[in-house]
Structure formats: C-alpha cells, structure tokens
Design a protein that fits this description.
The chain is of the alpha+beta class. Helices cover 69% and strands 9% of the residues. Helix 3 packs antiparallel against helix 4. The chain binds zinc ion. The site of zinc ion (ZN) has 7 residues, from loops.
Length: 163
C-alpha cells in the first residue's frame, strides 16, 4: 500500500508507531494537528504534506521574500507592457500617472482637513453643551441637551474610527 492510499489516521498511526509524536501545532492549511516523525520531519497527515515550522522571524522573512518575488514579477510584467508601447505613449502614460498621484494625494488631504475641522467643531460644541448642562435645572431641557451630546459623541467616535 503506497503512502497516498493511506487514510490520515493510518498515516498518523504510522508516525506514532515509528517513534514520532503529535505536536501542539495545527496545520496552517487544514488546522488538523501536525505530527513529527522520528527524523524530525513535520507532516500534516490530512494534507499529506510536509510542513515547514518557522520562527516568527523566519516567517516574516519568508513573507518578505514572497512579496519581493511578487514585486519583481509585477515589475517584469510592467516592463513587458511598456516595451510594447512606443516612446510617445510611454511618456504620456507616465505623465498621466504623475498627475493622478498628485491629485489623489491632494484630494485625500482635503478630505482629511474638512473631517478634522468637523471634529474640532464637534468637540467645541460638546464643551459648550456640557457647560450648559452643568448649570441647567430644567429636566426637559437637560434631556434635550443630553440627546444632542449623545449624537455628538457618536459622530466623534465615528470619525475617530474611520480616520
Ligand atoms: Zn493540513
């Protein structure tokens, strides 16, 4: 019987019988427990694949490597695309791109500024209303003031969350 025909349970049993052990780690793909053979190989018996255990640092390095590879691939694709175009189109494309970049940034700053202004206004209003609440004795007025306070705080929290 080849390894492929075995059930996950059978594979696990084989590893255990041969002096391996179950690890307190789960397979990153299927979340089943991982097994370590006597030779030190870590295996997922469900995926029937070896699993490389990395330290956090190693893992981050691997992810970075993957990202770099991706970047390089993107770049190669881009270069391929550009080399297909003639010089004029290339210049035009880079010009448009530059414009897009500055415009997006500009708009983003504008949004941020008006949001920040709104936040400041709300915070000032909140202070004003809190002062009034401090001296207000009429209950129905107090109730109205409090409901405004509630709305203002909701809005401020929303802004804090989103920006
Ligand atoms: Zn697995």
């Amino acid at each position: 019987m080849s390894n492929l025909d075995k059930s996950p349970e059978r594979r696990a049993a084989d590893i255990l019988l041969r002096g391996g052990k179950m690890l307190a780690l789960a397979c990153p793909v299927c979340s089943s427990p991982l097994y370590q053979t006597k030779d030190g190989d870590v295996i997922c018996v469900v995926c029937n694949r070896p699993v490389k255990i990395l330290s956090k640092k190693e893992y981050e390095k691997e992810m970075l490597k993957d990202k770099d590879t991706q970047k390089k691939e993107d770049l190669t694709n881009k270069n391929k695309l550009i080399s297909k175009q003639d010089k004029n189109t290339k210049n035009l494309a880079s010009e448009v791109k530059e414009k897009e970049k500055t415009e997006i940034k500009h708009n983003y700053n504008n949004i941020n500024n008006s949001i920040m202004n709104a936040y400041d206004t709300l915070s000032n209003k909140l202070e004003e209303i809190m002062m009034r609440i401090r001296t207000e004795h009429d209950l129905s007025t107090l109730e109205r003031l409090l409901s405004v306070v509630e709305k203002i705080i909701d809005l401020m929290l929303l802004i804090e969350e989103e920006y």
